[in-house]
Amino acid sequence: MSSDAHHFVETLQSIGYKPAKQLTPSLVEWMFDTRTTPFLVWFSNSVSQSNVLRPEEITEFSKLEEDGVRILEADQVEKILNFSDLFNDDSELESQEILRNKMYELKGNKKLLQERKEALLKRRHLLSARLASLKNNFFRAENSQKNGKQSYHESEQKAQVANNSTSASNGRLKESVNLINSLYEESGSPDLEPQDDAVFLSQVNLKHLQKLEDRFIQEVTITVKNSFLRA
Q1: In 3D, which of 87, 84, 85 has the Cα closest to residue 96?
Q2: How many CB atoms lie within 10 A of CB 69?
Q3: What is the per-residue pLDDT across 107-145, written as a single tens digit (0 to 9) for each?
Q4: Are 41 and 31 spatial neighbours (Cβ–Cβ below 8 Å)?
Q5: Does residue 5 contact residue 38 with C-beta atoms inside 8 Å?
Q6: How many other C-beta atoms lie within 10 A of the C-beta of residue 8?
Q7: CA-to-CA distance for 81 and 93, rounded, in angstroms?
């Protein structure tokens, strides 16, 4: 068991921290395995009954505040103590004058500090408003990014479907072209054989040409119907 954990529990109990009565070193030992260990060690070594207010002292202080008694701040008390040697002077009037001047100086410093405090509060409000605006812009940008990604994926899927459909249409068109080309390469009967020796239109057999046209139109009609039925 860690000695630091034992010391920490003893410190809490010594200053009157009520929940510490139920604590044991084993319950807080895990806290000394984290980044807070230096602070906990400092707390155990620095905090004691001599520098912690007792409940009755807190009650007395609250009563003074309720009675409207003016209570000096720590820095004011320190400055007054620094001039305690003035009371050892033989000249009481001179000491009072010096003390009065110092009090005026303290009042002036208090006024300056109060003005500086108000300026800092205003600046803090402005920074808080700016931070809220930046957070709002960030959330908007994040939502826009999500919507953009979703729209991109949907467009990509639609493009893929259109591409597949185009590929299928191109395949069917290629088949149709091959079928039409076959009309010029195949002959169904001896009387439909092309006349390669014909040079002028008057040398072409009109019946033979009419049969070729009728067969071509019939084959094109069947091909187009089949293409629509497959689509």
Answers
A1: 87
A2: 9
A3: 888 888 888 888 898 888 888 888 888 888 888 888 888
A4: no
A5: no
A6: 24
A7: 19
